[in-house]
């Protein structure tokens, strides 16, 4: 199979996976509001979700790998816009995937263990567990998973979109959508520092899968031919 088409299929599948997981967690776990909850409320609810809840978080943590794999497969196409720009985008996509996986994987691993211990612990130990839970949310979740993950993902979107707008790849309108998505996600990544960008961050929950599906569809069903002479200074 053409590697670009395969990259598109992976992107669409990954995006649909994000939508399915997000929907499940929203209806069964109060996601994403639960991320701001206290250990005494969140951990018992998480453990009560049983194996199904834990499995959903495992799937959630695996899904970002689709972004890294797509970036690697599509690299030969987007390098036509410049070697340096394409390499930067590929590095950003892989970094984003790793960061998001680190942030998400804390739920079926660290938080699951903490939740089981929390239920059996006395008040003093519960307070200690709560401090570990809060630290994990801050460093693994907010800093690595959300901020680093989203900023580097935005950088990948930016490099792709610049290439598409300049004529590398089909469906040029996808490039403009990508530029808007990259800008929106970069601003939304600062939501933990100021509530002013909270509406933009909420918008990104819908914008991200839309762009991934549009990009994936553009790679699977190309309209027109990419310009072989397109170049962007690296």
Compile the SSE list and pairings.
Blueprint: H1 3-29, H2 39-48, H3 50-62, H4 65-78, H5 83-105, H6 107-120, H7 123-165, H8 172-188, H9 198-220
Assembly state: single chain
- Taking Cα atoms only, what radius of gyration do you get, to the nearest Å? 19 Å
Helix-strand topology string: HHHHHHHHH
Q: Tally of extended strands?
A: 0
How many domain modules? 1
Question: Overview of this structure, please?
Answer:
This protein is mainly alpha-helical and 234 residues long. It has one domain (3-220). Helix content is 79%, strand content 0%. It has nine helices and no strands. It has helices at 3-29, 39-48, 50-62, 65-78, 83-105, 107-120, 123-165, 172-188, 198-220. The longest helix is centred in the middle third of the chain and has 43 residues, at 123-165. The model is unreliable at 224-234 (pLDDT under 50).
Which labels suit this protein?
mainly alpha, single chain, 9 helices
What's a quick, concise take on this entry?
With 234 residues, this protein is mainly α.
């Amino acid at each position: 199979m053409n590697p670009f088409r395969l990259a598109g299929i992976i992107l669409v599948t990954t995006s649909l996976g994000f939508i399915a997981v997000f929907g499940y967690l929203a209806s069964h776990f109060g996601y994403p509001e639960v991320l701001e909850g206290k250990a005494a409320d969140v951990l018992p609810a998480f453990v009560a979700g049983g194996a199904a809840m834990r499995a959903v978080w495992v799937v959630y943590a695996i899904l970002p790998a689709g972004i890294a794999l797509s970036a690697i497969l599509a690299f030969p196409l987007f390098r036509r816009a410049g070697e340096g720009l394409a390499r930067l985008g590929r590095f950003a996509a892989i970094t984003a995937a790793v960061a998001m996986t680190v942030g998400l994987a804390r739920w079926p691993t660290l938080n699951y263990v903490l939740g089981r211990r929390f239920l059996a612990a006395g008040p003093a130990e519960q307070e200690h567990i709560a401090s570990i839970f809060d630290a994990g949310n801050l460093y693994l979740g907010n800093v690595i998973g959300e901020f680093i993950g989203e900023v580097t993902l935005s950088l990948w979107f930016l490099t792709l979109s610049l290439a598409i707008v300049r004529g590398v790849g089909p469906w040029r309108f996808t490039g403009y959508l990508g530029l808007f998505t990259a800008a929106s996600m970069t601003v939304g990544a600062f939501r933990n520092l100021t509530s002013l960008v909270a509406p933009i961050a909420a918008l990104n929950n819908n914008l991200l899968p839309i762009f991934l599906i549009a990009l994936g569809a553009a790679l699977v069903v190309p309209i027109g031919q990419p310009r072989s002479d397109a170049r962007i200074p690296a």
